[in-house]
Amino acid sequence: MLTGSDPNMRIIYLTPEKMVQSKCFIGIMDKLYAENRIARFVIDEVHCVSHWGQDFRKDYRELSVLRMRYPNVPITALTATATIAVKYDIVKHLGLKDVVFFQSSFNRPNLIYEIKDKGKTKNLSDDILMLLKQKFANMSGIIYCLSR
After folding, report:
1. What pLDDT shows up at residue 10?
2. φ and ψ at 76, to 5 degrees?
3. Distance between CA atoms of residues 33 and 142, nearest Å
4. Would the pLDDT of 99 be above 90?
5. N or C: which end of the chain has fewer CB within 10 A?
6. Is the pTM of this model over 0.90?
7. Does residue 148 have a pLDDT over 70?
8. Which structural domains are found in the chain, ordered by start?
């Protein structure tokens, strides 16, 4: 798909580990760059770049290669959990230029945060399904659990 004469991908979503560890993929990216077919890199959870961040992952650190290999491609860096020190570490490490920060509170009025006990049944899946049907029918959301 990406290696043909007319690659038809509009978005490629992959982990930093795949980006920096796959020589084959880097070769494909080099070819796309040479053909001016890369519009932007978007790095989610970018706080993982920083040693100051709470979720440091070494392969995020290697994403500095994006600016070196693809100097004309804009980079958008997204995170919800960066301190000021982490933000400036990200900018420095990724070689970001003309940076504009957009920031808002994590506490948004359109979100509902609740902590629930596992419930009276012994089956967590049943509890979740009952909660979804009774309280959150036809709504979207994310359920975080302390374990799998």
Report:
1. 73
2. -105, 125
3. 36
4. yes
5. C
6. no
7. no
8. 16-94 (3.40.50.300)
